[in-house]
Write a structure and sequence with these properties.
The chain is mostly helical. It is about 55% helix and about 10% strand. Strands 1-2 form a two-stranded antiparallel ribbon.
Length: about 110
């Protein structure tokens, strides 16, 4: 268990780190860029951009024949996830709640 002094020291360190590297300011722009990149990855270049404000991209790979290989993303994959009951939303709070409910019900 951390003492009050250790917690205070940790807080000072974190505040200093945030001043040097303001991730909290850069993170939303990074996530907005992921909406565009993800839309092109799934729907093809020039395709429609999803109706969401923020997103993160994850690389899905599979182990096959003794090596990793990429899994191709497609609208069929998105349709499968949606058909399974996962409903993306452009509202963060609603999306978080929908994600929690989706996984609690599995």
């Amino acid at each position: 268990m951390l003492t009050i002094g250790a917690r205070g020291a940790a807080q000072l360190f974190l505040e200093d780190a945030a001043e040097r590297n303001p991730y909290h300011l850069l993170f939303p722009a990074w996530m907005q860029d992921h909406v565009r990149r993800g839309g092109e990855l799934v729907g093809g270049q020039g395709g429609a951009i999803p109706d969401v404000d923020l997103a993160t991209l994850y690389r899905l790979r599979k182990w096959e024949n003794g090596a990793f290989s990429d899994v191709k993303h497609s609208m069929a994959s998105v349709d499968k996830i949606t058909a399974a009951g996962f409903k993306p939303t452009s509202n963060f709070d609603e999306g978080l709640q929908a994600t929690i409910e989706f996984f609690l019900n599995k």
